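Technical annex B. To support the medicinal chemistry partners, we prepared a structural model of the target in complex with magnesium ion, based solely on the information shown next.
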Amino acid sequence: MTQPRDCTLVLLTLNEIDGLRLLWDRIPVDRFARTLAVDGGSTDGTREFLAERGIPVADQSIRGRGVAFRVAADATDTDRLVFYSPDGNEDPADIERLDDLLLSGARLAIASRFARGSQNEEQDALRPRARVNQALTWIANRLFNTGPYVTDTINGFRALRRADLLELDTTVKRFPIEYQISIRAMARGWPIGEVATIEDQRAGGESKALSWPVGKDHLKVLLTELPHARPLGARPLGDHP
Ligand SMILES: Nc1nc2c(ncn2[C@@H]2O[C@H](COP(=O)(O)OP(=O)(O)OP(=O)(O)O)[C@@H](O)[C@H]2O)c(=O)[nH]1
Ligand SMILES: [Mg+2]
C-alpha cells in the first residue's frame, strides 16, 4: 500500500451534483492525505452527496473561486494542494499527474488545454473562448514570463504548494484567480510545469463563467499586475510551442 500524498485534493463546487455523480468513482480521493470540498453555496444536493461520502465541506463567506482558493489554503495543512472542479470539464486522470509535476520541481502545475496533444471543450469551428484564452495567455507570457512559454495561464485545474499559494497573497475574488496566480508565479520566475489535458463537456448544471464579465475581470487583473511586468525588450522569452 503506497503512502497517501502529502497533498489535499480540493474540490471546488457550486451546484455540481451532475458532475459529481458522473465522475465520483474516477476521482482518486484515496491517494491523497485529505480531500476537502470548498462550496460556494450549493442547493442541488452537492453538499449532501459529499457529506455522505465523508468529505468535509468548507463554506465561503462570499461567493467566488478566488475566495474559495484562499479558504482552501487556510483550512488545510498539507504540503501541496491540487484544485479540481468536478463539473465534467476536467479529466480526473490528470489529478495525480499535476501533483507529480510539483514533486519533480514545478512550483505551479497547470493542466493545459492548449499544449501539444491537448484539447479544449469548444467544438464550433471559431472556438471564440479558446481564442480569448490564448490571447490573454500570450499577453501574460509577453509581460511577465522569462521562462519557457506557458500555454494555458487560465485553466483552474492546477496544483501548487500551500505555502506558495499563501506567499502569492492573491486578491482576486472571482474567476480570474488562476490568471493572477499564473502571472504572479511568472513574475517571480518560478518554474511552471504543464500537463496536456483533454477538456470534456460540462456534465450538467449551469456554467457560472459568463464570457463578458469574466473576460473583463481578466483584463482588470492584467492592469493590477502591470507594475510587476518585466521591462520590455529585456526578456529572453521561451519559444512558443
Ligand atoms: N467553491 C466555489 N466553486 C465555484 C464558484 N464558482 C464556480 N465554482 C466552481 O468552479 C468550477 C468552474 O466553474 P464553471 O462555471 O464550470 O466555469 P467554466 O469551467 O469556466 O465554464 P464552463 O465551460 O461553462 O463549464 C465549477 O466546478 C464550479 O462549480 C464559487 O463561487 N465557489
Ligand atoms: Mg466548467
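Notes passed to the chemistry partners:
The beta strands are 5-13, 32-39, 57-59, 80-84, 108-112, 158-161, 192-196.
The longest strand covers residues 5-13.
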